[in-house]
What we know:
By secondary structure, the protein is mainly alpha-helical.
Amino acid sequence: MPYLHVRPPTKDAHAVNDNATRKLSTHSHMRSARRLLVVLGDQLDALHPGLEDFDRDRDAVLMVEVKQEAERPASHVQRTTLFLAAMRHHAMDLIDQDVRVRYVQLDDRANQQTLGDELARAIETLNPEVVQVVQPGDHRVLGSIRDATGDKGVSLDVLNDPSFTCSLEEFDRWANDGRKELTMEYFYRERRRKLGILVTDRGKPVGGAWNFDKENRKTFKRAPDVPRPYQARPDQVTREVMDLARKMWPDAPGRLEHFHWPVTRSEAKRSLSSFVEKRLDDFGTYEDAMWQGEPVLYHSQLSSSLNLKLLRPIECVDAVVDAYENDDAKINNVEGFVRQIIGWREFIRGVYYHEGSDYLGRNGLGQHGKLPDFYWTAETDMNCLSHCIGEVLEYGWGHHIPRLMVIGNFALMAGVHPGQVNDWFLGMYVDAVDWVTAPNVIGMSQHADHGVVGTKPYISSGKYINRMSNYCKGCRYNVNSTTDDDACPFNTLYWDFLDRHGKTFAKNRRMAIALANTRRLGDDDRKAIRSRARKLRRQWGVGPISG
Length: 547
């Protein structure tokens, strides 16, 4: 089945948009369906496998908007808006393809406001022989669907998700192939060879290396002049969703003023083209850099479109490889992007399903502190956190270094419970889906999964932030001090973390140098660090950090 046709603008485009809500409502009144295909909010794939042999006369699609998915955990208003707006546009495209769609809108009076209850209600009305769904990206969601179909005595067919380049079966075979640990680098190289991406006929990496990390750590000496990213303009359908989100969740975190995320495939494709043309050739070089007032820099911002399935990873990879082959981008920038898409992204998905539903409950370092209130307001005198969290509130997004090395790094060293950190990341980023958030936060960011994702905790003192950004220049804290009253809290927490968890990482070779430095601390320095760390935690409301 080809990609769904995207309606071109018409002279009466506003009228089409004005009638969108009515169109979705009236099309939902159907009486029966042989097969009921559940299309979830992050499965807006024009090549959805459930549509391959879809009978337009006897089968039906079910799409539902429910409060449950915006309130568990509390979601950024832009995240909620993005999912609902993209769902409505996708449903309208399906309807234009003569697909029968039962679409339950958020403010429908009959809406039960949970996915499981709405599926049960649809089964009662349509009496299908089978319910189909592509493998959900959330263990909880799959559980709800299984419960609903089981209670109603209807068979459930869970389809493989073909939008990824590596199936779950392939990942399990790789993971179970006598490996002592799961290492992304080895997975990535194997996938490059398997897919024939940036490899020679002999299976060697193009450019002579599998990665160019050493070339991809540059920072800015002055404010960078970065081409502006593509910004989609909200149409009437999206604006209606924005108004609905404000009405339904007036106290939701985040702001809507800068909502410009792609909500259709055509917009997502324009975003991809804009990135390849304007920012790809500096992406890798500066992918670890941060700069005040520049949340995007040279990053692609394609993660939300990929995770909603408006784009497929292979078309993004093909686009950047074409740029390299046409001499429009250097190998370090192209390889860095490819690594993110077919390496890290697919590795993380594999880990999520391979490790199972108990992954979310892991707390390998036994940390039980409370997430500080400033994570919801950005009101803190630590300049780096104020800006990085503030950008999330403003845009619902931030690239991987603020996520990992500022926001996540702080929570880990402060002793916050990893479940609370994961809930915040899941709710606050527009590209967040459980399969991608949990391993990145529980595993990589908070090192709570006993080293499945990362071989060492990703922690750093303020010196790393100072090297990779200009945040420290405008901060009231001294990045060169550890225990003084004006000492950078990241410095204090860094040494306190190493001191608290020294025994845990005693045999970790990658932690050897840091731990050796900790052992050189004198008793007075150690006491001063512990004392200031406790004082700071009380000040932030973190509370006790051990269970």
